[in-house]
Amino acid sequence: MGVTNSNKVISQDRINCEGSLRVTLALTAAPDILTNPTDIVLVLDRSGSMTGAPLANMKLGAKTFIDIIDEATDGTQDGQIGSGSRIGIVSFADTAVENTQLITSVDTLKNVVDSLTAGGSTNHADAFTKATQLLDSSSGNAKVIVMFTDGNTTTGAPPAPVAAAARAQGIIIYCIGLIGSDGLDISALNNWATDPDASHVAVTPDAADLEDLFAELAANISKPGATNIEINEMVSSDFVITSIQSPSKGSAAMLDNRSLKWTISELGVTGSESAVLDFFVRHVGQNPGTKLVNQSITYSDTEGNVVSFPAPTVAVECDVVVQPEACPTPVDLEVEGCADAVLVDLGDTYLESQGRIIQMDVTIKNVCPGKRVALAAILTEVDQDGMEYQRGMKAMTIPAHSFPSCRDVLVRCIKFVVPEDLNLSQNAGKTMCVKRNFKARFIAHNIDTDYRCCESVLTL
Predict the structure, then answer these.
(1) CATH fold group of domain 35-222
(2) Domain limits of the chain?
(3) Structure confidence at residue 74 (pLDDT)
(4) Does the N terminus or the C terminus of the chain have fewer Cβ atoms within 10 A?
């Protein structure tokens, strides 16, 4: 089945201009056998050459195989083959015997394996015949034969046509070979097995390795969802990654302030399994609008799963910013490298007042589109007795905006130059750094309205 689900979600669909949000990447993988029930026939060689350690090690391997399939089909070794899959056993020497039907009881299967004894010749053709007959052609389950043998065919019909007929029915054939006392025709195993040989044939000269071979084959049949996963995420240029939480599976690291890498060694190997990664991003762009959070995201794994993630968008709301008063224009000047005295004429400047500069920002709330706003700023100074003195007033026009709905408008850098000409402080005249108390007031109203006087019509 491989990767069964991939998702990318964000914690909110609307943020302000400097807002942050959580991004969640999620991935689910499952063995193929979970959603594609499989009937498996273990075909086990019990000919005379298997006497002793080879037979003992084959039994260990076969039982390990059964345990792995047990866990792969329902996520736990509970003694039952789950999700609609079944296992049957055929053993062979001079002839083949159907030791069990296709069943789900792990204990029954293991007891049959333990009861096998070695003796006789090697009849591969009859083994393939009995295994094919055991697989019910009317069943919708996938069908697999796992043939184990330690020698050449010594009796019976040629096995190659029987194996070919089984493959023609859609049966997948795996072959495990042990190079025993009778030798082993590896080319025959390749001929019997489903192509490609590299993933359907395994051979060992050592009976002690049989358990590992059976385990590897069981994992291959259950088809782990994904291994060696690598996900590379890059957020768009209007965002930066501020932090990454530890993922539920694997590890993740920031590559720079816009990209990260998430790696998972395996996912969904023995059962359906999910992995989640949360990270946080902040908007650093200057413009509002609906924006893609990620610029790109790539996925790769050993199994070649093709995975795509959604591309969520977030609505970014940035205040309209108006600066009614421009900063003074700077004058550029240069100093030559060896000059130790420089005379520069910067032209004229005008003394506004001696005193302090107060710079204020104000946000006008709920300004509707297409409406200019008149804004007045009034500044007063308060003496120690609570009396207020006018310090200045500024009136300005805030240009209309064209956003589709009413929004806030930020007016920045409203400056007042306050002279040191009133004796309003107890410490006045002692120092220029005394504390001074001011009050600021703002008045705003729409300039543009749809109001019209009633046009009177005189009738006689």
Answers:
(1) Rossmann fold (3.40.50)
(2) 2-31+225-317, 35-222, 322-327+350-446
(3) 85
(4) C
